[in-house]
Amino acid sequence: MELTERKKRILRAIVETYIATAEPVGSKAVAELAGLDVSTATIRNEMADLTELGLLEQPHTSAGRIPSAAGYRLYVNELMDRQQLTIQETQRINEALNLKMEELDRVIDRAGKVLSQLSDYPVFTVAAAKQRVTVKRFDLLMVEENAFIAVVMTDNSVVKNKLIHLPDQLSDTQLQLLSAVLNTSFVGLSREEMEEALDKMETHTAPGAFELISLVVEFAIEVLDDQGRQKFRTAGITHLLEHPEYRSLDKAKPLMNYLSEENETSRLPMNLNNGKSMNILIGPENVNDALKDTSVVMASYDIGDNMKGIIGVVGPTRMDYAKVTARLSYFADSLTRMFGKELPSGEQEDKEES
Amino acid sequence: MELTERKKRILRAIVETYIATAEPVGSKAVAELAGLDVSTATIRNEMADLTELGLLEQPHTSAGRIPSAAGYRLYVNELMDRQQLTIQETQRINEALNLKMEELDRVIDRAGKVLSQLSDYPVFTVAAAKQRVTVKRFDLLMVEENAFIAVVMTDNSVVKNKLIHLPDQLSDTQLQLLSAVLNTSFVGLSREEMEEALDKMETHTAPGAFELISLVVEFAIEVLDDQGRQKFRTAGITHLLEHPEYRSLDKAKPLMNYLSEENETSRLPMNLNNGKSMNILIGPENVNDALKDTSVVMASYDIGDNMKGIIGVVGPTRMDYAKVTARLSYFADSLTRMFGKELPSGEQEDKEES
DNA sequence: CTTTAGCACTCACATTCCCTGAGTGCTAAA
DNA sequence: TTTAGCACTCAGGGAATGTGAGTGCTAAAG
Predict the structure, then answer these.
(1) Per-residue pLDDT at B340 exceeds 80
(2) Are residues A155 and A221 in the same domain?
(3) Which residue from A38, B115, B167, B210 lies 20 to 30 Å from A54 (Cα-Cα)?
């Protein structure tokens, strides 16, 4: 059986009205909406064909049709209009993002929140660091005779610091010596290499000096760890409850739990999209069980040259794909542009020990 | 009418079984559970009295009784047992908190999550800074000839930094000069005073130098702002859905929205508890409308000498007060102890400009 | 005076049954 | 190939009914 132009128009009408109403679409509604001058009987025949092709489904014999996963897939691939954002929306987005002086994480968080509000779906964000981060330089600042600030700068231009308290007093010259050791022996090393270098150093260094060195190096390792970590965040989870498919709590609960869990690695299955900058996973196309009845639309963006981020929208398979993709791609573009002009920046920590 | 010992025992039995079952409690159940050797008829008489005293309520004439807000209040004030934590629980809590080297925010977040899991209710946390924070010292570190790191340390021992890019080149001596100006003119000032000082300086300083100064001072102002901000966070909101009173989405949605909104100021109505370290607000005792059918149990803890934090549990009025208060007070004590031995620490930022 | 047994009464909730209407597939004519 | 007509299906809504847990009251017993 062939997929005629008319069948496509009918499919499109069904997908779009189902997206809008969340109720099975009957032949009468299609006859009115598809703009075809044929009777409902003809539509019925066509709909029967589309069902046979696996593009539509019937919840029960005497109900209208709803799109199948394959139907949605065809819709997003061929039939969907590219939507335009309103001026208000672009303004809203720009306002939310263009607040200068914000740290990276906060910008991403804010982006997630606004996107969630604009789309009425939950949004997740992932910021994936580059694989191998190294320390570019160490600086030590004396605060009191028994405390100093360690400043670590990484090769992706992130600077973090920590207030370190010491058991004994320390002189200025000792501090300079320490700084020299750190900057000669631990710069340019990855996390693992640092640990190795530290181990080696232990044997042929005075215990007191070694303790001092390891305090700072351990902090540097933490910094690198933190850089390497994927940061998964979500926003607007409660939007799920607005959609009829999650009115029953049995449906809503697992998904909400999945989204609010913080087991970061389990989310990775939404693999870094293969090349394309926008990726749509419809229902069963998702690997993870919790997402089987759910669609995920995600876009990637660049954070400077080294990092990559993903921002995605989660919703029922009956998702307003046209609306979501339009907003999402605008966000991804804006974020890329934004992190492109300035260098990447990340938050930093300070700690304290005794 | 007098509140006899027997009435109290009956009230207690009703509160506790209602907490466990979420269903109105009838005279028969009380007769069995309260451990009184009287008939159901006697219990009925007593229950009628308790209703008249405003301690119990009847959803409809032919149903059992449920505790009123006043009933819960009496229960938590007089009747409730102080619960003991199991060894596993204390271990779990200690593990979650004793991860060293974590930054303040992350420890608090983690505490919220674990408490939420242990109590099966949503948890919120607030970290309130001390009122007036000032900068204790500035440090500037040259990175390249057109970029340096500004390090700001506040009087509550928080250190933050930012990578600042410049339009033109800058010499080492210029940087030292800048550092001297900052450390003489802007140390010890509050946020407002800093802005003032900066304004004054503008008139009698060379434009180029002023621009440089204001770059750093503006960063310092941000830091102080961030310190002053109350940080409101929530964890485990989805736990709400496990409790029958929120099975209807009309009930759950407003509360979930309220908790996940980030309008931080609107939450303040839960005023810094008046002296006592643990505070329980039952149903209508809450000022905020979204919480009228909800109970809030909160405890405060100290973050070093200057800051104060609140950690609280939100749930239906039918909340397991005994369980929650036990765990909550353990958390608050642990947090106080934890932030007590080390000095307070907060996360910090780095930014970048061109 | 307190407690208890007995009894009639109330009312939410579940079950059943029926009806309605939207929507279908099929057939036969255009 | 399209259309009109028709019998059929089935989910959802509403009314009717039954059930049972629980109550308040009364009168007798302790």
Answers:
(1) no
(2) yes
(3) A38
Query: Which residue on chain A is closest to B234 by alpha carbon?
Result: A260
Q: Are A201 and A185 in contact (CB under 8 A)?
A: yes
How many interchain CB pairs under 8 A, A with B? 130
pLDDT digits (tens, 9 = 90+) for A327-336: 999 999 888 8
Q: CA B118, CA B327: separation in Å to the nearest integer?
A: 8
CA–CA distance, B34 with B330 (Å, rounded to integer): 29
- Among chain A residues, CA nearest to B155: A143
Kindly state the tokens that stand for B250: 């009309």
* Arithmetic mean of pLDDT, B77-81: 93
Q: In chain B, positions 243-302, which contact chain A (CB-CB < 8 Å)? A: 247, 249, 252-253, 256-257, 260, 262
Distance, in Å, from the CA atom of A68 to the CA atom of A51, rounded to the nearest integer, reads 9
Is A199 found in the same domain as A152?
yes
Domain co-membership, A140 together with A247: no
Contact (CB, 8 A) for A115 and B105: no
Find and list the nucleotides of strand C having atoms within 7 Å of a protein beta carbon: 3-6, 9-12, 21-27
- CA angle, A102 then A107 then A108, to 5°: 155
Question: Are B101 and B237 in a shared domain?
Answer: yes
Helix ranges, A206-246 (H): 207-228
Q: Nucleotides of chain D within 7 Å of a protein C-beta?
A: 2-5, 8-11, 20-26
**Domain of A64: which CATH number?**
1.10.10.10
Q: Are residues B333 and B250 in the same domain?
A: yes
Q: Which of A256, A234, A285 is nearest to A123 (CA)?
A: A234
3-class SS of residue A228 = helix
In the prediction, which pLDDT does A264 show? 57
Give CA–CA dist A286/A283, Å, rounded. Answer: 6
**Which among B163, B257, B346 has CB closest to A238?**
B257
Position B138 scores a pLDDT of 96
CA dihedral B24, B29, B30, B33 (to 10 degrees): -130
Q: Check B349 against A348: CB less than 8 A apart.
A: yes
CA angle centred on A65, ends A64 and A68, rounded to 5° = 160
Check whether B100 has a pLDDT greater than 90. no
* pLDDT band of A343, cuts 50, 70, 90: very low
Selected residues 154-183 of chain A with any CB under 8 Å from a CB in chain B: 157-163, 165
Residue B147 token pair: 């970029």
- Three-class secondary structure of residue A167 per DSSP: coil
Residue A238 to residue B247, Cβ atoms within 8 A = no
For an interface test with B, which of A162, A218, A234, A351 has the most B Cβ atoms less than 10 Å from its Cβ? A351
Cα(A186)–Cα(A207) distance, integer angstroms: 18
Closest CA to A182 of A232, A137, A145: A137
For residue B335, what is the domain's CATH number?
A: 3.30.450.40
Predicted local confidence at residue B262, as pLDDT: 63
pLDDT, tens digit (0-9, with 9 covering 90-100), for B266-309? 555 455 555 567 888 898 888 888 888 899 999 988 887 777 88
